Amino acid sequence: MLRLILIYLPKTFNLASRPEVSTPLVSLRRLAEGYWLKQSSISPYAGSMYHGSPLLLSLLGPLTVKRIEGQPNHLLCSDADDSLHILGYSLVFVIADIISALLIRATGHTLQMAYRQSLNSLDIVDLLKSSDLLSSGDIAALVYLWNPFTIAACVGLSTSPVENLVVILALHGACKGLVPLAAFGWVMATHLSLYPAILIIPVILLLGYGPDTPPRKLFLQKGYGKNGDSHPSDNCGQQETSQSKAEVTFSWRPVIHFLFWSSLWSTYVLVLCIISVKPHGSLWEMFQRCQLDILSFIISGSDLWINEKTYGFILTMEDMSPNIGVLWYFFAEVFDFFRSFFMIVFHLNILFMILPLAIRLKHRPCFLAFIYIAISSMLKSYPSVGDSALYLGLLGLFLDELADMKFSFFLLCGYIGVSLLSPVMHNLWIWRGTGNANFYYATGMAYACLQIILVVESVSAVLNHDRKLRKLSVTKLRDGNS
Amino acid sequence: MPKTETETPKMKPRPIVRLGIFLISHSLLVSVVCCTAGVLALLLLPLLAKNTYISENALMPGSASSMISNRDISEANRLASDLSGLNFKPQDSAALESRRILTKYMSDLGAEVSYHKFHHKPNQFHPLHFFSSPDSTSSVKNLSCSAHGVNTVGIIRAPRGDGKEAIVLVTPYKFGKSSAAETLSLSIAYTVFSLLSRVTWLAKDIIWFVADSQYGEYAPVEAWLRDYHTPVFTGLGTLNADRCVKIDDPYVFEQKSIVQRKISDGFRRAGTMAAALILKVADRNEMLEDTLNIYAEASNGQMPNLDLINIVNYLAVHRQGLRVKVEKVLTLLDSRWLEILGQIFELLGKVARSLNPGWKFGISAADYIEGSATLASSLYYQALGIPTGPHGAFRDFQVDAITLEISPKVSPHNKARHNEFLLRGGRLVEGVIRSINNLLEKFHQSFFLYMLTSPSKFVSVGVYMIAFALLVAPLPLVAASLYADANQLDLGVKNTKSTPTATASDELDITFRSWKWLYAAKEVFLIHVWGAAVSLLPYFICQIPNCSPTSGSAIWVFLSMLSLLILYLIVGSPSTHVSISQSEEKGEWAILKSATISAVFIGLLVMSVVNFAAAEIGALLLVPMCLMAQPLKLDMKAAKLRSFLRIICNVVLGFVAFPPAAFFVVKTIFEGFDSINMGDFWNWMESLWAWNSATYIYIGMVHLPCWVLCLHILLHSC
């Protein structure tokens, strides 16, 4: 595997300490620190280093401690010996990446099946010829695996591959209709990084309506068309109408199941958290904080208790060290008494977009999930390249719909340019002292703009695609009628 | 949404969009205008240069009178005579003895003296060093104990300071086999040092670093700086140091027995460095007067803060009456076309002044030639990315440093003249140190990004960026217009709106076409991977024992060709990917060209941030070629005068832009045809990667692939 070879590179590249790859939330070094604190029976959150979830700590912690014991001063010198431990550690990430790629592939197949089926039911089969040699799932999986961002996140030893894995797990479960899996993925994703909480809408839609389809109106139209015309094969038309009717109805059962399962899983996760943190006497501390954090309480809708040190850290944006996002600079500049106001504004920014998008794209829940992920990875407080790896991988899933997207070449050039410029600007600012923070922030802004263009263009491409489908089916109907 | 806009018949896009579309549709005109304007702006730069001024008020150069007395000078002379008395002894013992004498003199002044051992390491190949931080860990291993040097460091603690900041004075000195000039530089430094040990105004510690220059002047400074900035904790550091301690043991003991006070073999530090001066005395003698050469270029075209050069220039010219020079390309001085150009500009300036006396942009032709020769050398040394002296090592640690090379008028044997020279040099250094001593923060006021056109004139980044921006501006426009042409996109200017009632097959076609660039992008990507591979090849060629530069470059060229051939065979000729009808063949090379141009644009943009001068020179070569490139076959078929001219332009540009060819052409122009040798190019490249120049990466990963792609477009079969 390519990335196992690449693992040996970070000695010169020092990817793990690059601000693009590791943010305070996903950095491995912080995780090691947290684990060390835990081992010495202090609360892992006692220092200001670790902000991740306690579960991740007990899952990945043992791997890091080997490293520390094997090489007492691994922070000072990178000898050849500890590459072995890094190897063991990164193996986890490589496996996580491969599993996510496989899941993406399976999801892609499901989606494509649904797409074909819906096209068939609309009698627009000739469009299918365009879907080329590879199925979209394969392409998406390949894109995810070979994306330089994914590789960077994996080689840079950040925990974002794991987070991506659970998000994809949730989507996959929802697509396949595996309610417990979807619930588990969603709960874990929310637990790990909070932002996937908004994915509850697409997941519920997905469970309710099934995978992505062209707009519902089309089926209705078609049904009416078939009904209206006195064709000999009346039965067939009737059948299809009922079929499409059945598809249209929102099935509540899996949703209720989902809610049930998610509450179950979240209590489970919570209990695990308590267990893992308990021996170190921080349970009460944590418990108290849970009561305080009402916002997250509401979001979760169940009894998911929140540790302020993880979610509070995400929400209040305490660490303003530079990253590729746009928030750090802003909050470093803003006056202290405006801070809480702007904090609310920025976080609501994500929430604002949820509802309109959900209404407009409710027939395509998977795509909706993709848009949500892209938006949140743009506006989240500690973005890293791992997040963009996730949504770029998911982008491949909608190959058929996005085929006539505009500016694709421009976007590619932009991504390449930004990802090259960003380290150079950072170098200019930190090491050479000839630039300043504005230089680096400019690349962050450019990156955000690119993401905005990507989101806008992909949404408009999908809507256009729907329009095209409608046009086609209408002409078909007309042809059939005349 | 854009598509809905086209459906409504009289929807006008916003003005900025219309402007963009207008520019794109007239890309040919725009690119010609922009390119000429870019070249013209580059030629205008000496005209636009501003006079330097001291931007940081705290510096106050020359406001205090110099305090160097004859006592300091006589002390320094004594040191010099002691040192030169050793020259007849065998080298090893002379080195030991001279070091001992130096130490004694230093510690007599009340300075803390310590030794710093360093190991000379041969040049290594690590081209990606630029992106990593200056790390200390990589080069500790595999040092041979045989090649080592010992630097002597003396530190004066400032009576008024808190020990947090320091000023560094460096004198390279070859212990044991020193020349008169080096001894002279040592005595200037000693003069200043002995004065500074007595003064009360010192707020920053003074470090006098006598670099053992038997392995070049850069290596000892770099080794010392690295050790200075890496805290060594117990354990690893001592282990490494102990490995070679046996060799040095007798020497250290001997030293200890002789001078017991204040010598430590541990590493001594003062605070962070505010600035560093490297003091040298040139061997050659000047005819007219004492001159001062300033060298400032550090690695990757970094420059020290302009204020540092300003102080030195101000003090040297206005206080000490030295003639200050910076490097210039001498062959440009008597070049004919530059003179004509200078006269034209002079004339223009006169005309402008006659129109409005307030306009003062004309300079005399002689000034213009002088300025452009200096600018050319400034550009060249920045573009090379190789430091021009030991000051380059300081810049890697964000310390501003310059090298002062003083050339005396007469031979240093004349006693009175000798003392006067010492006095002048000493006063200059004293004044500079006193100015820096006043500094409250790091140098930050003045420019970091600039080019000198004379010691007292500079072109700042805001001005010289214009030339580059003009050169590069056509690239995205042409890329966009080619892309639009190839996709037959409607840009709203041709009055043909996309028909809303397109048939399904048409839409499929559009769909297919809008992703067609993927093939071109793939091809560009592959060629760039090839470029990366080619630039990594020298690493393996270096491993071949005793290989001469000529054979090295031959192997390199051969292997690169071979790998390119293999790439073509494996991937197949890229034109076989898509078998599209004849009408779209045109689109294929156009898309390829547009992808190439985008790659060039991104590469140049990134490079202009890393090292502006390299990007500027690269843009001069690449941009015309990329813009002109068009399949030769098309021009052959057309057989008109215009296409014929284009063929010639393409061939010439394609030849010139090939990096070795460009190198040899430049060399022929400046040094004559006789001195050409295949190995030269190899040596040149070797120096580039040995010094971690980003230019090397640029040539390997941007310039060469783009050249190959342009050739591919030229030879495209359509």
UniProtKB/TrEMBL annotation, chain A:
<keyword id="KW-0337">GPI-anchor biosynthesis</keyword>
<feature type="transmembrane region" description="Helical">
    <location>
        <begin position="139"/>
        <end position="158"/>
    </location>
</feature>
<keyword id="KW-0256">Endoplasmic reticulum</keyword>
<feature type="transmembrane region" description="Helical">
    <location>
        <begin position="193"/>
        <end position="210"/>
    </location>
</feature>
<dbReference type="GO" id="GO:0042765">
    <property type="term" value="C:GPI-anchor transamidase complex"/>
</dbReference>
<protein>
    <recommendedName>
        <fullName>GPI transamidase subunit PIG-U</fullName>
    </recommendedName>
</protein>
<dbReference type="Pfam" id="PF06728">
    <property type="entry name" value="PIG-U"/>
</dbReference>
<dbReference type="GO" id="GO:0016255">
    <property type="term" value="P:attachment of GPI anchor to protein"/>
</dbReference>
<feature type="transmembrane region" description="Helical">
    <location>
        <begin position="337"/>
        <end position="359"/>
    </location>
</feature>
<feature type="transmembrane region" description="Helical">
    <location>
        <begin position="410"/>
        <end position="431"/>
    </location>
</feature>
<comment type="pathway">
    <text>Glycolipid biosynthesis; glycosylphosphatidylinositol-anchor biosynthesis.</text>
</comment>
<feature type="transmembrane region" description="Helical">
    <location>
        <begin position="255"/>
        <end position="277"/>
    </location>
</feature>
<keyword id="KW-0472">Membrane</keyword>
<keyword id="KW-0812">Transmembrane</keyword>
<dbReference type="InterPro" id="IPR009600">
    <property type="entry name" value="PIG-U"/>
</dbReference>
<dbReference type="GO" id="GO:0006506">
    <property type="term" value="P:GPI anchor biosynthetic process"/>
</dbReference>
<feature type="transmembrane region" description="Helical">
    <location>
        <begin position="165"/>
        <end position="187"/>
    </location>
</feature>
<feature type="transmembrane region" description="Helical">
    <location>
        <begin position="86"/>
        <end position="106"/>
    </location>
</feature>
<feature type="transmembrane region" description="Helical">
    <location>
        <begin position="366"/>
        <end position="382"/>
    </location>
</feature>
<keyword id="KW-1133">Transmembrane helix</keyword>
<feature type="transmembrane region" description="Helical">
    <location>
        <begin position="437"/>
        <end position="463"/>
    </location>
</feature>
<comment type="similarity">
    <text>Belongs to the PIGU family.</text>
</comment>
TrEMBL record, chain B:
<feature type="transmembrane region" description="Helical">
    <location>
        <begin position="690"/>
        <end position="715"/>
    </location>
</feature>
<feature type="transmembrane region" description="Helical">
    <location>
        <begin position="554"/>
        <end position="571"/>
    </location>
</feature>
<keyword id="KW-0472">Membrane</keyword>
<feature type="transmembrane region" description="Helical">
    <location>
        <begin position="20"/>
        <end position="45"/>
    </location>
</feature>
<keyword id="KW-0812">Transmembrane</keyword>
<keyword id="KW-1133">Transmembrane helix</keyword>
<dbReference type="InterPro" id="IPR007246">
    <property type="entry name" value="Gaa1"/>
</dbReference>
<feature type="transmembrane region" description="Helical">
    <location>
        <begin position="644"/>
        <end position="670"/>
    </location>
</feature>
<dbReference type="GO" id="GO:0016255">
    <property type="term" value="P:attachment of GPI anchor to protein"/>
</dbReference>
<feature type="transmembrane region" description="Helical">
    <location>
        <begin position="461"/>
        <end position="484"/>
    </location>
</feature>
<dbReference type="GO" id="GO:0042765">
    <property type="term" value="C:GPI-anchor transamidase complex"/>
</dbReference>
<feature type="transmembrane region" description="Helical">
    <location>
        <begin position="524"/>
        <end position="542"/>
    </location>
</feature>
<dbReference type="Pfam" id="PF04114">
    <property type="entry name" value="Gaa1"/>
</dbReference>
<feature type="transmembrane region" description="Helical">
    <location>
        <begin position="591"/>
        <end position="623"/>
    </location>
</feature>
<protein>
    <recommendedName>
        <fullName>Glycosylphosphatidylinositol anchor attachment 1 protein</fullName>
    </recommendedName>
</protein>
